[in-house]
Predict the 3D structure of the following.
Amino acid sequence: MTATGGKDAMNSLQTKTAGEDLTGYRILIVEDDYLVASDLCEALRSRGATVLGPTPDMRKGRKLLQQQRPDCALLDINLNGELVFEFADELKAQSVRTIFTTGYDTAFLPPRLNRTPCVQKPVNFNALVSLIRDTRAVPQS
């Protein structure tokens, strides 16, 4: 969801079922758009997740990663002109599952990251929650 999604869309996102519960999940959010980051945080917290961040750049994302290990990281691909692929590699090396939240097509991903899940903006929160829940069930490849 983007800032244009409005309160009605956000209210519908806050109703959760057992399959959407994220209690116990720690999720790092690296997103440079304040409104998108705010929507992500609100929706994930409403489902019980602990949100690390949000942070608008990789430097701060790395600092958060040193403080607490997330179960999953949500990365916008382009942070004010800086691509996050190096940070995604670092997360993968530490066995932190990554999901790209982006406006870019998946063809934009480098081959080494082409199996990393992507959620297109505007974010479909039901799809995102399913991918986050899958992070615990699927071994890092």
Summary: Residues 1-16 have pLDDT under 50 and may be disordered. The domain at 23-137 is CATH 3.40.50.2300 (Rossmann fold).
